[in-house]
Amino acid sequence: MARKTGSNQTPETTPEISVVIPCYNEEAILWGAVTELHAGLLALGRSFEILISENGSKDDTRAIAGKLSRAFPEVRTVFSDEPNYGKALRRGIESALGKYVICEEIDLCDLDFHKRALKILDADGADMVIGSKAHREAHDERPMTRRAATMVMNGLLRVLLGFRGTDTHGLKAFRRDRLLHTVEKCVVDRDLFASELVIRAQRYDVRVVEIPIQIQEKRPPSIHLFKRVPNVLKNLAKLVYVVRIRNR
Q1: Residue 213 in contact with residue 110, Cβ under 8 Å?
Q2: What per-residue confidence (pLDDT) applies to 122?
Q3: Distance linking the first and last C-alpha atoms of the chain
Q4: What does the pLDDT average to over 206-231?
Q5: 92 and 20 Cβ atoms separated by less than 8 Å
Q6: 191, 233 in Cβ contact below 8 A?
Q7: Contact 101/174 with Cβ under 8 angstroms?
Q8: How confident is the model at residue 11, as a pLDDT?
Q9: Cα–Cα distance, 138 to 216 (Å, whole number)
């Protein structure tokens, strides 16, 4: 069952920006990443919250997240007992208070993406901005196996689900009010929730813009790449059935 701590916002101080970060077994980098992100967001001069969505960590991630929510009024934490990236991301989005939601990764915390995406959203140039690591102008410095996995998954999504774009997983920024309906329609979780969100946004004619990012892996994935394959294939089959066959 999910629990929340560190809710420091009131209706009078509702933030403009919510940064949602799913976290699982991130004790080594959580404190440093969040404190650095917090300082960077303060420098933007806009109201914000950082929402840590911790999901079933077996190390000290939960305790560190709680300390962060007590140390900084802009940090909130949602706890749950199930290691599930998609559910953690969805719960964070649904719990967010901001006009704009930025979906982050704890090993990225890319303030440059925040600035560029917010500029597009402020100008009403899109409803959703995707930070693409597969964009032709991106710089993806991850290991070859990780890059190959991204290419394979994107290919499957194009063939099986009509995905139009270069990336679905990772950094995103969007207007919360224009994407909540899309979030509510999503049917899969784990690694494929982020992909379904983008694919459904395209199907619902949400204005989606991709921008290139630079990405370098700061630590190995918290869950080994090949251990994720069975759940990815299971959720992909479910998504194809729901979208292609049932047209939902």
Answers
A1: yes
A2: 98
A3: 28
A4: 83
A5: yes
A6: no
A7: yes
A8: 42
A9: 11
Cα separation, 13 vs 46, whole angstroms: 12
Tokens 């701590």, residue located: 5
Alpha-carbon 33 to chain mean position: 15
| DSSP per position, the chain | --EEE-----GGG--SEEEEEEESS-TTTHHHHHHHHHHHHHHHTS-EEEEEEEES-SSSHHHHHHHHHHH-TTEEEEEESS--HHHHHHHHHHH--SSEEEE--TTT--HHHHHHHHHHHHTTS-SEEEEESSSTT-EE-S-HHHHHHHHHHHHHHHHHH---SS--SS-EEEEHHHHHHHHHH----GGGHHHHHHHHHHHTT--EEEEE-EE--SS--SS-GGGGHHHHHHHHHHHHIIIIIS--
Question: 129-172: per-residue pLDDT in tens?
Answer: 999 999 999 999 988 988 999 999 999 999 999 999 999 998 99
Do 129 and 172 form a contact (C-beta atoms < 8 A)? Answer: yes
Task: Write down the residue that tokens 């292609």 correspond to.
Answer: 244
Cα gap 166→131, rounded to integer Å: 10
Do 128 and 174 touch, CB atoms closer than 8 A? yes
What's the CA gap between 205 and 193, in Å, rounded?
Answer: 18
**Domains of the chain, start order:** 17-245 (3.90.550.10)
| Amino acid at the residue 174 | F
Asked if residues 96 and 63 have their Cβ atoms less than 8 Å apart, the reply is no
Least confident among 2-6, 94-98, 168-172, 238-242? 2-6
